[in-house]
Amino acid sequence: MDDVARAAQTAARAALAVTLPRRWAHTRGVAGHARVLAAGLPPGDDETLVAAAWLHDIGYAPSVVRTGFHPLDGARHARSLGFPDRVAALVAFHSAAAVKAGLLGLADQLADFADECSIVHDLLWYADMSTDPTGRPVSFEARMAEVRLRRANDPVALAALDLGLPARRDAWRRAEEWLRSAVTCGG
Ligand SMILES: [Fe+2]
Fold first, then answer.
1. In angstroms, what is the span from residue 108 Cα to ligand 1's centroid?
2. 16, 52, 73, 185: which could join 24 in a potential S-S bond, CB 3.0 to 4.6 Å?
3. 83: Cβ contacts below 8 Å, ≥ 6 apart
């Protein structure tokens, strides 16, 4: 494993493994999927994707929570630990975080990070959305249904889920198209 990804794994384990074991199981599943996906990426992008996958939910850790909005808290924590700005930014904007930031009035703070438009961005969302809370693979529709059920008492989360659904679906579609093209080129 590359140095940045290894450091990200270490940081995520330290923050999540004991205090939030279920979140840690999900994180391990996302990172494992990201590592498989990363095999089709150029050097640099591959390690960035895996590092971001390890760190994407670190903002849930009690030791990391500041605003209570986990993408922002996680991105700031990643930056404070010295991870590359690109990794922190991928954490900040993962899985339609910008939509919820707008609803929470945190868009200005999230704008401290630069959202990138790339296959790395899409693959991070894809790895997250295709992994259930226990770390197992899941379909897009099942994952969205699971999130909706888990957040049933959180109207802001439900509104963010609805508003962010097209962006989530588009990222999923682009990731699957990229996977199909990667298979074609390799075959
Ligand atoms: Fe996640």
1. 23
2. 16
3. 4, 7, 8, 11, 51, 55
d(CA 182, ligand 1 centre) in Å: 25
Write the DSSP symbol of residue 68: S
Distance from the alpha carbon of residue 55 to the mean position of ligand 1, in angstroms: 9
Task: For residue range 87-146, list pLDDT tens digits in order.
Answer: 999 999 999 999 999 999 999 999 999 999 999 999 999 999 999 999 999 999 999 999
Q: State the CATH number of the domain containing residue 50.
A: 1.10.3210
Q: Number of folded domains in the chain?
A: 1
Rounded to the nearest angstrom, the distance between the alpha carbon of 183 and the centre of ligand 1 is 26
Which residues have CB under 8 Å from 92's CB, separation 6+? 71, 72, 74, 75, 110, 112, 113, 115
